[in-house]
Amino acid sequence: MAGPPVRWMPLESNPEVMNKYISLLGVPTSWQFTDVFGLDPELLCMIPQPCCALILLFPITQDYYEAFKDEPKQEVSEKLFFMKQTIRNACGTIGVIHAVANAREKIGIDETSVIGKFLADCGKLDSSDKGKRLETDVSIQNLHKQCASEGQTAALAAESKVDLHFVALVQVDGCLYEFDGCKPTPVNHGSSSEETFVMDAARVCREFMAKNKNELRFTIVALSKLV
After folding, report:
1. What pLDDT digit, counting tens, does each position of 32-42 carry?
2. Dihedral over alpha carbons 62, 96, 175, 56 (to 10 degrees)
3. Residues marked as catalytic
4. pTM (two decimals)
5. Burial per residue of 75-97, b for 16 or more beta-carbon CB atoms within 10 angstroms, e otherwise
6. Biggest alpha carbon distance in the chain?
7. What is the distance between the alpha carbons of residues 105 and 116, in angstroms, rounded to a whole number?
8. Are 188 and 175 in contact (CB under 8 A)?
């Protein structure tokens, strides 16, 4: 008989917290998260370049989960790293992993780091088994717990029911992809490039916001090289 679902404390969408987290995971300190202050072109121009990923935090409802059940199967690049979310409240970590893993060549991940070892261990595992592999990674679990306990808002217990969700947007192999561990596969949002990525990803963020116009609980952070 299967045991109770694994639960982690929710991670705050806060660059200070997330930068400490990715540094501990082994991401070079030259790559850091910064706040995205808005989706107008003049505000998007403030995002440091190069930028390899945006992570969107948004409110979810049951309708959100129902809507993507009927999404048609898409053509996706074989270069993608994708994992399913099998841990409750771990979408922050999974968003970070999706962002880093799908830009690992650009970022330069040390294979001996915590994240480097995790990606190597995942190897050719399918998306579900990658999610299960995370359940047993004590190093990442402990770092997540450490960083989830920090931030500007009171830390929520692992048992808390959270109605906010993280997804990562990354340009891979000439296309913009949405990585959501609760969906069956990555979502291909069309052609993109290093030069157009931020504007293309902002378009997708606007689409998320348009679906829930009465909500204000949207935050976006960008993963960029600062030095």
Report:
1. 999 999 999 99
2. 50
3. 91, 165
4. 0.92
5. ebeeebbbbbbbbbbbbbbbbbb
6. 55
7. 11
8. yes
